[in-house]
Design a protein that fits this description.
The chain has about 120 residues and is mainly alpha-helical. Helices cover about 65% and strands about 0% of the residues. It holds the Pfam family Inhibitor_I29.
């Protein structure tokens, strides 16, 4: 058990060293803003890694958008510590309410699209 604790502490130390120390305050503010609490330090380290990776992707995308390579900007939100797979899984379980009012049926919408093409 003592060996396991030492190994865990060493891995946590290595993981912390891999993070950008300039982002620590940003990470803490993001967690507070979105009410994020993690069960273990290992889980938090993993979520921090995903969050930093997502932040890098957002920053790169927005830099490219400023050079007219994209027509929209991205921003960090409450899903910043989730992988693409986790986000997709969370949306896969959503259900459209049966009483949702739709102005057109799928057939009517298709007919409108076909008419607009002419």
């Amino acid at each position: 058990m003592m060996l396991w604790s030492l190994l865990l502490a060493a891995l946590c130390g290595i993981a912390v060293a891999l993070f950008d120390p300039m982002l620590e305050q940003h990470w803490q503010m993001w967690k507070k803003t979105h009410g994020k609490n993690y069960q273990t330090e290992v889980e938090e380290l993993g979520r921090r890694e995903v969050w930093e990776r997502n932040l890098q992707l957002i920053n790169l995308h927005n830099l490219e958008a400023s050079m007219d390579m994209h027509t929209y900007d991205l921003g960090m939100n409450h899903m910043g510590d989730m992988t693409q797979e986790e986000i997709a899984q969370s949306f896969a379980s959503l259900r459209v309410p049966a009483d949702l009012f739709l102005p057109f049926t799928a057939v009517e919408f298709t007919m409108i699209q076909l008419a607009q093409r002419r």
